[in-house]
Amino acid sequence: MLPFAQVLLDGLFTGSTYALIAAGLALILGVVKVVNLSHGAFFSLGAYIAYALSTKGVSNPAVAVLLACVIAFAFGVFLGKSFINPVRSHPFSVAVGTLGFAILFEQAAQMLWGPHPVSIGAGPPWAVVDGVVVRRWGAISLIASTVILLAIALFLHSRFGLPVKLIAEEEEIAESVGMDVEKIRYLTFGFASAAAAAAGVLLAPATSITPTMGRVPLILSLIVVIASGMENIAAIFLLAVGLGLLSNVSAYLFSPQWSYVSLLSVICLLLLLRPEGLSATMPGRDY
Amino acid sequence: MIFSPRSTTGALALGTGLLLLLPLAGLDHFLLDVLASGFLLAAYVGSWDIVGGVAGQICLGHALFFGTATYSCALLTSLAGWPFAAAAAAALLLSTTAAAVVGTFSGRLKGPFIALLTLALGELAHEVALGQTFFSPRGAYSWGGEGGIPVALPWGSPSPWASYYGALLFLFLSTWGMTRIARSKDGLIWTAISGSELTARASGVDVARHKRRAFLVAGLLAGAAGVGFAAHVGRATAADFSLELSFQAATFAAIGGRGTIVGPVLAALLLHALFQGAGIAPAARVLLYALALLLVLRFFPAGVAGTLRERVRERNMVPEGASR
């Protein structure tokens, strides 16, 4: 049973970090009101930044997280302001354009760092309890992602989070009371992208880093936001941990590739069983 | 007046003449091969435009139908020992069935959710194709995975001339058929659904049934392109199911003008011939396509041809109104 306990513990660690990505996707869906298929690319961006730093001898995760957040924030603001805002009323342009951005990043990463998987040394384990290894990256990412998620929740409940919540619910009113809706939209896009990149840095030692690695957390986050909506951060966290466990267990029982297959099957089933999906939360647009 | 119907016919006739003449004008085998696969890719992109452009359903898993056909050809000829013609017929049937299933499920979904479902289904097929490796019946080398499965062709490896003219003929027939379908009664209904599902339903259109039919037609044509590709390349690989291939269909369609059939076909043919003929590596090619797509979506929301046509029309309308 010990290897299984190990798998569950690692699943908890990765799942809690996936929650960070899912929370970002939920924020984008709630505030910008688009389904962002490029979200996984920011996760890969973070992982590659961690890799590039480790080859330069910088292995401090705090430095890597900060740098990745700043870079991803810049890209996210660019994408949100210069692409998403002008086209966001066209579902085709949003879906294909954000996918196009993800593929642009995948191909660029393949040209810069090569198509083959690269990895970072995971470092010495943090502690060993009854033969179950508590990995250093795991402890760091569990703590870091919980702290960031709590900060997001606190921000949304505070006075400063009010404009964001108002735009998510009543865009016209937010506009009529003089809020700069467009600015808040692209800033949200930037922050959510930074969160995904932070998750990429945190999980970089746990996975093999490949150009297409962002597709797994993208599908996982899509499942989370379709199933749990985007109001409740606790629900997002629990669901992401559950799916992280599912993907780790299926990788352990079959082969690593199966974690992606199981997530893809879950999203297909979810869309078939709940065809109305998020339509209740999307703006009243006739597609 | 670049895009008026009459001059389009003239330009198409000129293009046809040039394409028929090219092999005789001493084009080398490499370029013949590039153009032949370009014709098949263009037909595949045209089939995307039936469901994605004319019917307006954001399909991000179109490679599913293409790959189903190539894999059926490979598995049935090499593993089951069927003759190629029978395998090709079965491949068409299977890709149409896959399209019917996807179309049925998509009937209940809307906008971005169709995109998510088709994307996930395409990726599932890709992962399965990547993961399945098995020993070939003769000898102990492995098939499947990245390397793919060979297609047993009755004529061995086809001559580049036969491939070129065969693919060209297929492209002409399928493009002609697709423009006819787009202008038929069904095509008009699909255009109405693309404009507004609610309005179409209010006018008494069975939206779910028509969505399914659009998928069916598109899947059949994508399958036909897949059969042609299997016959041309002689191998089915996991790349036939890849997200990059699905993405290329939507990209070329967006660049050429969604819903115009001829626009996406020409965009696919020109860009593919240009980039592959110039010897640009696949990764760089897809990167350039993605870049072109983002620029087009940002600055030409109705596609290059579509937006230009709108502008030409606007310009022509002003003086007429002024002279009156």
General description of the model:
The complex is a heterodimer of chains A (287) and B (324). By secondary structure, chain A is an all-alpha fold. Chain A has a single domain, classed as ABC transporter involved in vitamin B12 uptake, BtuC, CATH 1.10.3470. Chain A is built from 11 helices and 2 strands; from the N terminus they run ααααββααααααα. Chain A has helices at 2-32, 39-55, 61-87, 91-113, 136-157, 162-169, 171-176, 181-203, 215-228, 233-253, 257-273; strands spanning 127-129, 132-134. Chain A has a two-stranded antiparallel ribbon with strand order 1-2. The radius of gyration of chain A is 18 Å and the shape is globular. The N and C termini of chain A lie far apart (50 Å). By secondary structure, chain B is mainly alpha-helical. Chain B has helices at 5-21, 29-54, 63-79, 84-106, 111-131, 160-183, 185-195, 197-202, 207-233, 243-256, 262-277, 282-299, 304-323, and strands at 133-135, 142-144, 149-150, 235-236. Chain B has a two-stranded antiparallel ribbon with strand order 1-2. A two-stranded antiparallel sheet of chain B has the order 3-4. In chain B, a hairpin with a 6-residue loop joins strand 1 and strand 2 (142-144). In chain B, helix 6 (160-183) packs antiparallel against helix 9. The longest helix of chain B has 27 residues, at 207-233. The chains are: A mainly alpha (287), B mainly alpha (324).
